[in-house]
Amino acid sequence: MHLITPEIKELIGEKDYTALQDIMTELLPPDTAELLQSLEHEEAIELIRSIPPDRFSEIFSYLDNEYQILILQDLTVGRLKNILNDMPSDERADLFLKITPELKKQLFSVMSEEEKKDVEKLMQYKEKTAGALMTTEFAKVNPNMTIEEATNILRKTALKRETIYYIYATDDRDRLLGVFSLKDLIVAPADKTVSEIMNSNLIKVFLHDDQEKVANVFKKYDLLALPVVDNFDNIHGIITVDDIVDVIEKEDTEDFHKMAAVGAMSNAYLKTPFSMVAKKRIGWLLLLLITYTVSAQLLEHYSYALESVIALAFFIPMLSGSAGNAGTQSATLVIRGLATGEIKFQEIFYIMKREIFMGLTLGTILGALGFLRAYLMQGNPMLGLTIGYSLALVITIATFIGSILPLILHKTGIDPAISAGPFLTTILDITSILIYFQVAKVLLGLVQ
Amino acid sequence: MHLITPEIKELIGEKDYTALQDIMTELLPPDTAELLQSLEHEEAIELIRSIPPDRFSEIFSYLDNEYQILILQDLTVGRLKNILNDMPSDERADLFLKITPELKKQLFSVMSEEEKKDVEKLMQYKEKTAGALMTTEFAKVNPNMTIEEATNILRKTALKRETIYYIYATDDRDRLLGVFSLKDLIVAPADKTVSEIMNSNLIKVFLHDDQEKVANVFKKYDLLALPVVDNFDNIHGIITVDDIVDVIEKEDTEDFHKMAAVGAMSNAYLKTPFSMVAKKRIGWLLLLLITYTVSAQLLEHYSYALESVIALAFFIPMLSGSAGNAGTQSATLVIRGLATGEIKFQEIFYIMKREIFMGLTLGTILGALGFLRAYLMQGNPMLGLTIGYSLALVITIATFIGSILPLILHKTGIDPAISAGPFLTTILDITSILIYFQVAKVLLGLVQ
Fold first, then answer.
1. Chain B: nearest CA to A316, how far in angstroms?
2. Which residue in B has a C-alpha nearest to residue A286's C-alpha?
3. What are the tens digits of pLDDT across the range A94-146?
């Protein structure tokens, strides 16, 4: 994409509008959006003038919210009206959530009553719920209509985007009765009624359902769209699969960041300002630094042991490191299982049992090797035993804690993703120092 | 789902087939698949008998490959034929990739020549490419047909699953000329031709394209399906969005596991046998244990320093831990940016510059705190300076390495995900010990 940016800049400079128009009709909307965002502001505004209003409305949807807000101010009232009317209702509400009250007032002044009501309604739903994700544009028909009547209605309405692949049958009070696909409609004889072809065994989600739950329903049933209902089974909107792809990606990114002890960022990395990234990172680093003072204190407490057997210090990284690695493995497996819906809290006892055996298996192997290594390096069998035995113990405990902690956090409503990575390794650092020196005290006969 | 398992078990025991049939018609295919997999083998076979063959074919697609193979042997030839005929062609090929040559021969004996050829063709594509993902079932028409003719053809064919929302216009040699949606078809006048309504500005992928690239095309253009072509622009199949949702999830899971130093598992955690999980985990743990012997050796080398200032040992976890945390943050931000397509290798110089500043910022803050902490705890200003200065240096380096390493791995074709987590922290462990003791030697005037 960036490849044609210089060429476009030149054409804008030369005011060669015919050439620009030719290129613009060739480019697909997402590509045009990318192009616009790579231009200087003035150039972008110039280029937008050579794009027909209808086409620009489509392009507008692919721009980042920040960029949308930036150029909104420079558009003519006519274009503004067009865009606000053509935007999918969920995206329009997202935009309104991010603008100032002044801009909102300005935009409302060019919108119809119906559009304003739609925005206000969608804005009320909590972020990351089905209500906030849904679009209010969808195809609905009466179940008593014939296929021919339904087809005619669909021809006249719902011409926007990928929202009419499923058609919903509702009664006069918008109660959801059934669903059928465009495919069903095409193959059905014209004189059958909607109620004859519709499927009333409906999969649906509720307005306040969490987006992660919605994503899991999509994945399980391989759907293109899902109706959103209230407690009275009235349909309020639909969620389409392209939005769910974005949700899955965003949720995963959030988990990745949390597991690396980076605070959640609403934007992509390179687009987030330096100071914001620094702020998101320093908080966790400081907290972790403070917990390391606990390990420093602990080591000071055991300095008598270090002074009599200095070699004990050599293996501190090996012990706390291995504990951290084994714990992170367990935690990641469980966190990912919870996120994809594979693991449920009820399985905690099975997982506990499995992970204890896993810890014992891994701990025994690593402990044996640690013993050999320390014995060969230092020629002291009791030191070797101290390392080996501590390693085995520490790894077993780390594996156990790593698997259980995310389950407990998940149960208490905290995102389990924060329990892997630095947070866990710091806890395990302290645990392993404690165990190591207790074992050393016994096996090496150290006294304070 | 599991809620009704006991009830079903009871009905199977009582051989109450009418009640079972009633429940089965109520349940959706993915739910029935889940139910079957929660039953004993004998019970499942019994239950399958009460499901009509057509419906069972649909359910079969939702079963795990392992389970499919398990029950294939117990099905009648009639059911087998039905299932193998009804399965989406991509899923059928996936199944064949996992079975023994004997079972393949057995299944081939009940399949038509055409089906066998289709399986052989799809099996030849490398895993994780567009060719391996695509299904060979899609709707195609000639561009010279009228809308009415095209509609009639669609009524007669392509009745399987969500594969006809886009219809492809091809010439006699299967060369891809254009695409239109079912929606376009419905709203178009019956006497127009396909070439008048089709869009010839096509988005497509090639047979050997990597699945991650395919996923990014889907995300960018908000598509429901994407045609797969060869170098001569002949269409071989289509990829549907539900498969892409699975791809995104699987790729992310793989990245999570790699970042936690767990070998890639083809299955979900709980379904992977204990011994397999242990094998996937022990490899990395052993490798990391060996690298810890390097840090042990290093510390032994510096034991003269530890002996003269034992307090140096207290802060080893703080230094290597903070380095690991800062490095993991950077690496995760870059790895995720690469995976979502936000970050490209060309931006390496910008990222380098940004991360050096980031490292200096974070390092200065943490270093100042580390200085204070060590000074207050030990009352030795030079020791405080050693900790503070080392922390600042180590964090700057860790931030830099953490951000650059994934970019370099990505460039050389290695999955950057392995560069975060334990692998990186181990490298940084060693780096931080080296820096720490070099700084200590200078500031504390230690000599060997």
1. 8
2. B366
3. 899 889 999 999 999 999 999 999 999 999 999 889 999 999 888 899 999 99
Domain of residue A222 covers: 139-244
Nearest residue in A to B63, CA atom: A220
Verify that B329 and B433 share a domain, yes or no: yes
Assigned domain for B255 exists: no
The predicted complex's ipTM stands at: 0.80
- The per-residue pLDDT for range A152-194, each reduced to its tens digit, is 888 887 556 557 788 999 999 999 999 998 888 888 888 999 9
**Which residue stretches of B169-240 are H helix?**
182-187, 194-197, 211-221
Residue A260 forms part of a structural domain? no
Q: Tokens representing A41?
A: 């502001």
Overall domain count for chain B: 3
Residues of A with Cβ-Cβ distance to B351 under 8 angstroms = 270
Determine the residue among B336, B391, B428 to mutate to test chain A binding: the one whose Cβ has the most chain A Cβ atoms within 10 Å. Answer: B336
Q: Are residues A316 and A426 in the same domain?
A: yes
List Cα–Cα distances, A100 to A95, A104, A107, B62, B445, in angstroms. 10, 6, 11, 47, 60
The answer to whether the Cβ–Cβ distance between B256 and A335 falls below 8 Å is: yes
pTM, whole model, 2 decimals?
0.81
pLDDT tens sequence across A274-301: 888 888 889 888 888 888 889 999 999 9
Q: Does residue A292 contact residue B366 with C-beta atoms inside 8 Å?
A: no
Cβ pair A256:B260 closer than 8 A: no
Residues B288 and B224 in one domain: no
Contacts of A375 in chain B (CB under 8 A): none
Nearest to A134, CA basis, from A87, A86, A91, A177? A91
